[in-house]
Amino acid sequence: MPPASAVTDRAAVVVERATAALTRLRRARLLHPAGRSFAGEVVVWGTPGPPTGVPTLDDPGRYPAAVRLSRGVPTPDGWPDVLGLAVRLYREAGRPFDLLVSSSGAAPLLRNLPLPRRRVAGTYSTIMPLRAGRRRLFLAALADPDSPDLGRSLAEVADAARADAPRLVLAVASAVGPWRPFGQVELGAQLSAREDAALAFDPVGNLPPGLRALGPIAWLRARTYRGSQRARGAVAQSGGSTGVTV
User: Fold this and answer.
1) Which fold has domain 31-215?
2) For 86, phi and psi rounded to 5 degrees?
């Protein structure tokens, strides 16, 4: 009987090859193919209340970022869809921080369920919990009531970014606790279609010190992203460059 590591390695190859084949068939990202990317900025105020133990979340800071808003299926603009938000926070040293969240409910029982909706602004959560030490944490991007409206379509998001600087609030919560805002992400100039296509996020490998993604869903997610990115000729960035394309 082969050792467990050999079985896991074979399963990884199967998943990555299947994902790559589906990506080539689709001729686009396998997950969230329709999207718009923007230069951006993340401002971290710091975590209110008990610290998470993750310095990037707990300590105030200001970071250049790349931001991508996308539709999951995708359905036509204005129709309900599972919406996605990807934020690459560039740190001065080490890996960038790739935060990927999907439209979900705000209540504790709905944080791990992707939920379709029409409006772009709303609750986006990591769906799967992350670990900081022994604690499970969810990260989220929430609607900012003082921000310009992002509308219901990707075109309306682009219009809002041209006219102003729309924002979403970044927050953290335990599995059952309330959301605790710790910062904001602001959208700037839209990136070109070529830059959007070149962006390749790694939601499992590109996490800040102190934060981990564990379990079978994280394993599957890492292999799925890797297979899709290889098939479209994009490579997830792991260095500390502040460029927006990879």
Assistant:
1) Catalase HpII,  Chain A, domain 1 (2.40.180)
2) -120, 130
- What is the length of the chain? 246
CA distance 49 to 18: 44
Q: List, for residues 184-206, the tens digit of each pLDDT value.
A: 999 999 999 999 988 888 888 89
Residue 222 has pLDDT above 70, yes or no: no
Q: What is the average pLDDT score of the chain?
A: 82
Residue by residue, DSSP assigns the chain as: ---HHHHHHHHHHHHHHHHHHHHHHHTS-SSS-EEEEEEEEEEE---SSS--S-HHHHS-EEEEEEEEEEESSPPPTTS-B-EEEEEEEPPSSS--EEEEEEEB-SSGGGTTSB--BS-SSS-EE-SS-EEETTEEEEEEEEE-TTSPP--SSHHHHHHHHHHS--EEEEEEE-SSSPPEEEEEEEEEEEPPHHHHHH----TTTS--TT-B--SHHHHHHHHHHHHHHHHTT-----S----S--
pTM, two decimals, is: 0.82
Query: In this structure, is the dihedral angle defined by the CA atoms of residues 237, 228, 56 and 119, taken in order, positive or negative?
Result: positive
Is residue 200 within 8 A of residue 236, CB to CB? The reply is yes
